[in-house]
From TrEMBL:
Reactions that this protein is recorded to catalyse: dUTP + H2O = dUMP + diphosphate + H(+)
EC class (word): hydrolase
Protein name: dUTP diphosphatase
Biological processes, Gene Ontology terms: dUMP biosynthetic process; dUTP catabolic process
Span of domain dUTPase-like: 16-147
């Protein structure tokens, strides 16, 4: 198992599509909304995707809002780039369900329909410093935001 996507069990029978690249040179895998949602003006909304991602221990999945959606509807990821760590996959809290935190900069609600491609995921490798002990640490127990307090 190198890297890829799976549907989380709670969405198994809900017609979720596995992310795919649309052209030969696309860096990102298009990610769809798993259900109808409304992005309220000037607020953050978590958009469920119904998917989880697996990858190598020295990789992460970067989540980026699709440029057309961002520009046309004034939408961004609240944290600029969502980062899905390798050990988020199959965590005890939420099975690794990827939720996209979107911010609506506009003054009108933006409807998001199930199946709408709202983001793209790009797999990245990263480097660590000499003597890094984190890789020998405890197993992740929680889901989103569980690696430490603010």
């Amino acid at each position: 198992m190198k890297r890829g996507f799976e549907v989380v069990s709670s969405y198994a029978d809900k017609g979720i599509h596995i992310p795919a690249r649309k052209t030969a040179s696309s860096a990102g895998y298009d990610i769809e909304a798993a259900e109808d949602t409304v992005l309220a003006p000037h607020e953050v909304t978590l958009v469920p995707t119904g998917i989880k991602a697996y990858m190598q221990p020295d990789e992460y999945l970067g989540i980026h809002v699709r440029s057309g959606f961002s520009i046309k509807k004034k939408i961004s990821c609240i944290n600029d780039e969502g980062i899905i760590d390798a050990d988020y996959y199959n965590n005890d809290d939420n099975e690794g369900h990827i939720m996209i935190a979107l911010y609506n900069h506009g003054d009108e609600p933006v409807p998001v329909e199930k199946g709408m491609r709202v983001a793209q995921g790009i797999f990245y490798s990263y480097l660590t410093v000499d003597g890094d002990e984190a890789g020998r640490g405890a197993k992740r127990r929680g889901g989103m935001g569980s690696t430490g307090a603010l």
